Amino acid sequence: MNTITNNSNNKEQNSKFLMHWQIVTLGLIVYDFIAVCASYFLALWIRFDCKYSEIPTEYLRPYFRTILIYAIAVVIIFWFLRLYKSIWRFASYNELLRVCIGTLITIGGYIAFTLLFVKRMPISYYLFGIVIQFIFTLGIRFAYRFILLLRGRNAKNDAPETRVMIIGAGRAGQFIYRDIKGAIETTERVCCFIDDNPNKFGRYIDGVPVFGGRDRILEACEKYDIEKIYVAIPSASAEQKRDILNICSATSCKLMNLPGLYQLTSGEVSVSQMKEVAIEDLLGRDPIKADMEAIFAYLKGKVIMVTGGGGSIGSELCRQIAAHSPKQLIIFDIYENNAYDIQLELKHNYPELDLVTLIGSVRDSRRIFQVFEQYRPEIVYHAAAHKHVPLMEDSPCESIKNNVIGTYKTAFAAMVHGCKRFVLISTDKAVNPVNIMGASKRCCEMVVQAFDAKIKAGKADEIPQLFTHWMREAVDNPEVTEALRNTKTEFVAVRFGNVLGSNGSVIPLFKKQIAHGGPVTVTHPDIIRYFMTIPEAVGLVLTAGTLAHGGEIFVLDMGEPVKIDTLARNLIRLSGFRPDVDIKVEYSGLRDIIGTTKNNLCFSMV
User: How many CA atoms lie within 13 A of 372 on its CB side?
Assistant: First the structure.
């Protein structure tokens, strides 16, 4: 019953809406008819000194004989030009053009008709008539928008305004300015432009000054009390953007950034296209893009397994792989919540995908052998690992058991069961490691390189087996020995630095500390790190899996390193606070490196 009532109400509302639209259309038709008649009467009146008694009868008669027919013709032509169907609240250049076309067509026809069939009228009659007709017919249509604009400006004047600076006085900056100026429901007001082109210094764009170059950003913010900055320089390089954003981050203004050239070339530059400046915008290099076509052609139609598939890197790997038609995708993870989340996501996005989600530990020899025996993956991306440096310092043996022993057992199972390629996800902390996590990942690299060397030498059957679950039948199985003699598995490792947004990244920690009011803890003011994004990391991993021939360690060129202290302070500024004023930055001191008493066992294993 409620459904029927709702439907009837909707129909009543729709009918009222249509009735209103019809009334507006009818009103415009009547208005245009009267306006056209009045236009040419006024033309005659003006032509003869604004005195009706001075208008000769020889001109009044042709006017009265033709004007009604002409007015009807104008209405018909305007109808076909859809001038009675436009929403005039949003009238723009298109409506203006159609009014111009309609006026020219109608006056041309009117002149021809009167000359050929009635009587030649004074030239001024036609000139005055067309001008007055154009003003009358156009004015009523744009009057509504003009009234709304005045109301919007009055509302802006009554509401507290947000003072805005636009960096970039080119096309993108002008698009943003016009979008802000034309918006009715915003309280923003553009106070100045900043541009590095000296030819624009001291000049104005629609009354708004170009204050100067990037060196005057702080001065302009102080002079105009700027609260918000739009960075509209899509053609700038990553280094140029980083320099400008670093200057802007020294202010307390909210920063908004236009992502790239696509919006400019596609004509989509507007305030809605701006995004808040993210911390990765301050890293100062362009993202590195892999040849994904070759990568996905390699993955297509293969059985692929991702260990640690619920983690930040593992889940992104699963997303990228699932999008390019693998024969089967196997997600293997010990943490059920993460595995469940990525399983639901992939099932929703790729309903045709043959997806298997398994729970288990890479340290469990029997479980790993069982998975490889049943599914026979052709490519394995080994992302399962303990990665948090401080936790591994407190539990060093767990780091070795999970990272090193887990990698050994997974790699051995892959080798025995005919896996074509095994990709280990490592870290730059494995280079001259100074902590347990880095040392354990270096051990993992040594494991896969040793496996690869033994395979190339035809001595894979000499690799010892680290079974801990009474798997004597696997150790003594002749099929396993034969498989080891004939294995062709290619082992490769991939190193990358800190991944922005990953579970082990410092950025989420800083954000939580800022949300709690600080302090933000940094180990040392001079500590530097290389950073990369999750898509870059996954692209590198997939590239390694495609190009590897066995034994390599792939490393991404991550540009210039970034000071963690600078990163923390910029993130505080981007959050709208002042470092050391609103949010304190504290230095916790460097952590102990490996070699201390509690870590001697692990260090000796490296």
Answer: 25
CA angle centred on 585, ends 582 and 586, rounded to 5°? 135
Q: What amino acid occupies position 152? A: G
Alpha helices in 428-521 (DSSP H): 436-456, 472-476, 478-486, 506-515
User: Which alpha helices (H) appear in 271-423, and where do they start and end?
Assistant: 292-299, 312-322, 336-349, 365-375, 389-394, 396-399, 406-416
* Chain-centroid distance, C-alpha 183: 23
- Rounded to whole angstroms, the Cα distance separating 574 from 457 reads 55
**Pick the residue with more confidence: 457 or 500?**
457
3-class SS at 164?
A: strand
User: Which residue has 């033709």 as its token pair?
Assistant: 66
Is residue 142 predicted with pLDDT exceeding 50? yes
Q: What is the pTM of this model?
A: 0.59
The predicted structure's pLDDT at residue 286:
58
Which pLDDT value is given to residue 158?
52
Judge whether 551 and 492 are in contact, CB under 8 Å: yes
- Beta strand 498-500 pairing with 531-533: parallel
DSSP string, 35-104: HHHHHHHHHHHHHTTT-GGGS-HHHHHHHHHHHHHHHHHHHHHHHHTTTTSS-GGG--HHHHHHHHHHHH
173 neighbors 166 (Cβ within 8 angstroms):
yes
Give CA–CA dist 204/187, Å, rounded: 21
Contact, 469 vs 389, CB < 8 A?
no
User: What is the model's pLDDT at position 243?
Assistant: 78
Exposed/middle/buried for residue 252 (C-beta within 10 Å: 0-12, 13-18, 19+): middle
Which of the two residues, 7 and 139, has the higher pLDDT score? 139
* Residue 439: pLDDT over 50: yes
For 579-589, what is each residue's pLDDT tens digit? 877 788 888 77
| In the block, residue with structure tokens 């415009």 | 28
Query: In degrees rounded to 5, what are phi and psi of residue 548?
Result: -65, 150
Cα 414 from chain centroid (whole Å): 38
Q: Is it the case that residue 157 has pLDDT exceeding 60?
A: no
Write the pLDDT tens digit of every residue in 249-280.
777 787 777 654 333 333 444 444 445 555 55
CA pair distance 593, 606, nearest whole angstrom: 14
Can you tell me whether residue 454 is helix, strand or coil?
helix
Asked if residues 437 and 458 have their Cβ atoms less than 8 Å apart, the reply is: no
Q: Any idea which of 86-100, 167-181, 185-199 has the lowest mean pLDDT?
A: 86-100
Output DSSP code: residue 215: G
| Bond from prior residue into 519 cis (ω within 30 degrees of 0) | yes
Mean of pLDDT values over 558-566? 74
Tokens at 440, concatenated: 């354990």
- Distance CA(283)–CA(30), nearest Å, equals 63
Which residues of 104-187 form beta strands (DSSP E)? 162-167
- Tens of pLDDT, residue by residue over 442-455, are 999 999 999 998 88
